[in-house]
Amino acid sequence: MENPTTKELILDTIKQKSVLKQDVFNNIILNFKVLKSALKVMAHDLQEEMKGVDSRIVIKYQDKGEYEAQLNIGGDILIFHMHTNVFKFDNSNGLWKTSYLNEDAKRGYCGVINIYNFLADSFKYQRHNDLGYLIARIFINNENHFMVQGKRQLGFLYNDFVNSTIDKEKMTQILESTLLYTLDFDLYMPPYDAVKQVSVYEMTELSNSMRIKTGKRLGFQFSADSDDITL
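Predicted structure:
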């Protein structure tokens, strides 16, 4: 057999990788729809339960389009964002040593759903300098194997990529863990030295719409939480 030409090699690579990435992308879209459906049900059920407890507590789901959903829960906002690109696990990742990925390298390509936590007041008062935090990332390949990278329970409950497959029940469990972490992730008072100086602009903006920068861990390194999980 003759050696393939450069053009044939290019075409073969396009066929393999482009088709794979389309498969992964289409699958993450389907799973994001599952996430939004589960999130909507969860928000409705929690809101109904809270009606008889305290009507001031707002729990509201918003579909923000094909790639984004939002959950308002008390003083927090959770933003779920599906990345439109497909990612491959880094070559140094230990998953490449498993038989699951060794048997088929295509399994190491995943779609990603990012989960961010913001303060509700940051949006209410349009404090554009306020900080949000990436609290979890959900990785799902074209065979529905998944893992979650995140903090505390989010980092160790869902890290068996080789043996775990995603479904509506597992997605609901991830969302429940996300909510528990968010509600336990309190707003800390920043160190005095971090806020002792305020510019005229910031003071003017504060008078207009309370825009001095705020974040749950402003003045503290988020990574100081000892439960960070890295890939």
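Summary: Confidence is low (pLDDT under 50) at residues 218-231.
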